[in-house]
């Protein structure tokens, strides 16, 4: 009896919610490159905007597709593919700092104001950096399945140090013309696959997942290992909510709660789910996430009423 294909195994064993997938387009970020963006309007032209940042190895849509439609009943919802992911920017190097700069550039290109930046896992790390590097574009933060650093245990330190050494040794290759050309060719090939209408939501999810190479994931994981925001979390001065995945085996819940307690006034929204809750347990995650975004949006009014001198003084 022949073994089932990976696609057939996904259909049998992986729950994927059947929802409408919004269409997107390639957007040029001046001086940076092009990335794939979806821009779903809210209930009226003045709806507040939420920019959603995805997890490592995923795309904007693959992380957030269960949440986009219910979120758009109250907000304008924007997603993008981060560099080296999906149809994101194909640069010679990957850094979280560049990813944060890309988000700020997109905010400018789309002419967005009073933006709530929300991230999941890697996306939550980038969201922290968006506030750190471009505080003028951030009116609120929602951090999901997050942490302030990754080397908090012996096992984590060993893993990330090993990954960093490996990627450092390969960095010359990543900068070479041959490797850059190969990465761009792979990106174009997977983008073409994504343009083919899938037979069902499982087919779409498989193709979306395949659009990011294992090489790109390894580079991103190495970059995440160098993240450490603890020294400046206490200076975050915009309304913030932290969605804690209480059954998370990747980022321990106690670390997520610890981060939330370091951010002045941050609210905590618990979800009894694991690290893949954004899709695999979306029926639990999405309501908690919308609650978190709505809470941050309501608190933005108080933030806007504060004197401008006190709002930005802590960000030097």
From TrEMBL:
Gene Ontology terms, MF aspect: hydrolase activity
Pfam families (alphabetical): Abhydrolase_1
Keyword Disulfide bond listed: no
Gene3D superfamilies: alpha/beta hydrolase
Domain (AB hydrolase-1): residue spans on this chain: 48-278
Alphabetized UniProt keyword annotations: Hydrolase
Name this protein carries in UniProt: Alpha/beta hydrolase
Source organism of the structure: Nocardioides mangrovi
């Amino acid at each position: 009896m022949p073994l089932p294909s990976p696609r057939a195994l996904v259909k049998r064993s992986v729950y994927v919610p059947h929802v409408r997938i919004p269409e997107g387009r390639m957007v040029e970020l001046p001086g940076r490159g092009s990335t794939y963006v979806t821009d779903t309007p809210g209930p009226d032209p003045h709806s507040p905007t939420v920019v959603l940042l995805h997890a490592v190895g995923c795309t904007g849509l693959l992380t957030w597709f269960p949440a986009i439609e219910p979120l758009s009943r109250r907000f304008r919802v924007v997603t993008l593919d981060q560099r080296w992911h999906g149809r994101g920017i194909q640069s010679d190097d990957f850094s979280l700092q560049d990813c944060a700069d890309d988000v700020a550039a997109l905010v400018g290109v789309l002419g967005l104001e009073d933006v709530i930046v929300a991230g999941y896992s890697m996306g939550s790390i980038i969201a922290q950096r968006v506030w750190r590097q471009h505080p003028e574009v951030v009116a609120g933060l929602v951090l999901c399945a997050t942490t302030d650093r990754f080397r908090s245990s012996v096992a984590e330190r060993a893993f990330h140090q090993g990954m960093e050494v490996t990627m450092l040794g390969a960095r010359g290759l990543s900068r070479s013309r041959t490797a850059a050309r190969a990465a761009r060719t792979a990106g174009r090939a997977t983008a073409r696959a994504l343009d083919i209408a899938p037979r069902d939501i499982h087919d779409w999810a498989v193709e979306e997942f395949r659009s990011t190479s294992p090489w790109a994931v390894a580079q991103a994981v190495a970059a995440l290992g160098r993240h450490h925001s603890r020294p400046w979390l206490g200076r975050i001065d915009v309304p913030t909510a932290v969605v804690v995945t209480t059954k998370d085996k990747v980022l321990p819940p106690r670390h997520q709660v610890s981060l939330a307690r370091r951010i002045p006034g941050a609210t905590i929204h618990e979800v009894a789910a694991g690290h893949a809750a954004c899709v695999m347990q979306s029926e639990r995650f999405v309501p908690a996430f919308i609650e978190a975004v709505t809470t941050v949006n309501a608190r933005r009014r108080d933030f806007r009423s504060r004197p401008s001198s006190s709002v930005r003084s802590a960000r030097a």
